[in-house]
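Support reply, case 0932

Customer input (verbatim):
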Amino acid sequence: MLDGDLIVSKTDVKGRITYGNRAFNQYSGFTENELLGTQHNIIRHPDMPRAVFKLLWDRLKDGQEVFAYVKNITKSGAYYWVFANVTPSYDAQGTLLGYFSVRRKPNPAAIKQIQPLYTQMLEAERLAGARDAMDVSTQLLLGILADKKLSYDDFVLGLQGY
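Our regenerated output:
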């Protein structure tokens, strides 16, 4: 991604894309018509640990925003890294409407630290098997954070330089 670029998308409560800006179309390689109504995981790269998305969805279900480094796949099979901020979106009565995501260029130094961590998490998921993959990978991440004496938020925001 280029400095200053913002990829914006919105989904309904089931994760189906309801809006994507031009940058979303440009970076993903999909047209607006191809994206609207599809699951947002259409751009999920297989190198992403499942535990990262579990953390993301758990936080969103609790009404919290979440920041994450995400490797996305394009329509052509290429990839791009983003630093994502995802928040729940509510109407005036407090009813959940869906989710709003803004992605920007990640700090390149952060990706150098995140990539080996995600590789380690993916290997733990693979070794654990489908039934236990997410739990094992989540515990690996939480253990690393505990060793660093950092919360998840402090860890990812610190890598981005915030």
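We compared this against your earlier run and they match. Two observations from our side: The chain has a mean pLDDT of 96. The chain has one domain: 7-160. Please reopen the case if you see a mismatch on your end.
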